Amino acid sequence: MQKKIESNILKNQLFSKKHSLLLAISGGIDSVVLAHLLKKAGFNFSLAHCNFKLRGKDSDADEAFCKALAKELDVKFYVQAFDVEAYCKKNRVSVQMAARDLRYDWFNELIKKNKFDFLVTAHHANDVIETVFINLLRGTGIKGLKGIPEKTGNIVRPLLNFTKEEINAFAKKEKISYRTDKSNLEAKYERNLLRLEVLPKLKKIHPNLEQTFLNNVANFKEEAEIVNEFLTEKTKLLVSKKGTQVVIDKLKLKKEKHLQTLLHHILESFGFTLSQITDIRTNLIENGETGKLFFTSSFTLTIDRKLIIIKPGVEKTSESIRLNSLNELKSFDLLKLEEIKEFKSIQNNELVIEKNKLIFPLTIRQKQTGDKFRPFGMKGFKLISDFLKDQKLNAFEKENCRLLENGNGDIIWVMGHRSDDRYKIETKKNNLLKLTLVE
């Protein structure tokens, strides 16, 4: 096993003896065996142990064991105690999720502070098998069949090619002492149930279960790379950026044969769940509601007539801005104010108005239900919502549209789009103000 792991580390360029390693040590057989293997191979590493205080005296005994092991191996030892229950209550997560979050946050702090090159964990072949089964049970694509990678960023897992059976045999041969976490012997957790009851029965049917799975995972990894290349090329044809927004060509996307897979590939990185992606797909196929919104903690997605638009953040109504005088209007950074002598032409982002028609205070605000104005060139009034619909604005543009309201309550300008006909220029010279919307 010693030669095999050294060969594997070298072959796959996981790390070298020049690197400084931080090994996550629990006191269990897997991490303890890995510590002995790294020591015999001459690698430079330290041990880091998390005491979650969940098993009373046993948790403290694990810590004492790891500390003694560090002394035996003559390596540096880091330890941290955690209040897992308090974290669970505060963040409303399971004990397992809390322990994972706390563990990796602390590891990252250690790595940054002490300039370690890699975090090393003792995941092995059986962990890969369990992970693939769990992914299958929860629902997955080919990505979930790849199991656990040997290297993810600065996290390295050099034992993935070794079975639990090999690790046990090596510990017995080398007379290596270790701690046993009794909670791992309870079948109440999903992973433990697979490990203790399901997989042993499968192994009776297929004695080479681990090796077969490792071969399958290797095939899945290669096939996943091919699929990913295909999806990446397709994505380039469908997705573009418009400022901070990501825009997907809805009409082209609907024609794609593998719509669900493409949507998942595009939207997963934004945090959209499988059920949300399925709902979005249904909306597209059934020509559902235009303007429908979907949210993650960091992004908002809307389905428009021709586009799917993703923008950072969750939409919030901004407060109204009140301008009490001409001086305040001059100093307001959203608008550029100029006095002009003659009116010639106007752009959508401009408003030209006779100075004496402005009534302070002016208000800049978002639209409200029932808002209406008389669009320039029209005789009758129109609801702002209908006007914006006619302008073919997407949901985000409608939501962010601002109105300039005169002191008498009239909407003077749908900013960036159309002024009110009641405030059109009567005289084309003198006493004119031009407001330009600054984006």
Gyration radius from CA atoms, angstroms: 32 Å
**Into which percent range does the helicity of residues fall?**
40-55%
Mean pLDDT: 88
Q: Could you give the count of β-strands? A: 21
Amount of beta strand: 15-25%
What name does CATH use for the topology of the largest domain? Rossmann fold
Query: Major beta sheet, specifics?
Result: 6 strands, mixed
Global geometry: elongated
Give the CATH class of the largest domain. Alpha Beta
Number of distinct helices: 15
Fourth-tier CATH superfamily name of the largest domain:
HUPs
State the distance separating the first and last CA atoms. Answer: 64 Å
**CATH hierarchy: architecture of the largest domain:** 3-Layer(aba) Sandwich
Strand order of the largest sheet: 3-2-1-4-6-5
Number of self-contained structural domains: 3
Q: Provide the structure class.
A: alpha+beta
Uncertain runs are: none
